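Task card 7
Instruction: Convert sequence to structure tokens.
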Amino acid sequence: MTQVLGFVGLGNIGGRVVPHLLKAGHDVAVFDVNKEAVAALAEQGARPAESPAEAAKGASVIFLSLPTPQIVRTVVADEDGVLEGASQGAIIVDHSTIDPETARDLAAAASAGGFSYLDAPVSGGVQGADAGTLSVMIGGETDTVAKVRPLIEAFAGNIFHVGPSGSGQVIKLANNVISAATILALGEGLSATVKAGVDLDTAVDVLTKSSAASFMLTSYFPRTLFTEERATSFALDFMLKDIKLFLESAVKANLPTPVSNIVGDIYRIGNRDGRGAKDFTSVVEFYEDFTGIRLQSKGTQS
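Output:
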């Protein structure tokens, strides 16, 4: 069934999700501060909006995909924001990665105004967004999740309702800090192995068939780190933001995080060294600087 939808935030994920909703036959109004991103989707059939409030007008569901907690708060609750333009009973589905506290605050604010809010961060990166196979981790009311599930199925391969408001953000931040730590462990191990004289491709082949196998090694590294161009799929600065959010939430829970603190320190070094806009796997260049050896597959060398 065709629905009127709003979508605010047309970056690496949002800009790739909207086409799936359009292909599913929905009427989608879009807004982003990047007018070129809006224009590109307008050419595919989306309706350009001049503000979050306009994007939300008449929509049954408004999707968000934004970079920081403060921007999400502004887009949802400030003047000309989503809550100002949305109709009573509308549902906000927030695919941003933010802190659980902000998600719970926005859920409460939405409920007080007669709306519903789901925190629904995603995993799978630009490849998953392009393919329509994202994993979505949702926090919020069961009935509300059931209402939006058919819409999310247009661009997701896995949909998890993980608990009440904030729960989606809790598990997404855990996912990202584990991924960040895995990247560092792989970078350290592979750098040491190659420095000792073992061929990189041989080392990767062995590890992918051993207990060190992981998605990062078998799928992500071959598309990013091991290539000549090292294209950006998920920027180091975004990963550093998520690590900081994880650590802040852990402090509030009085949870010791010695490993995550070290991980955060090395990503901060990556930011200091000018790698913030590069893919987050570029943090491994920390080790390459010491060894003088670039971790590049022979299959990608020109």
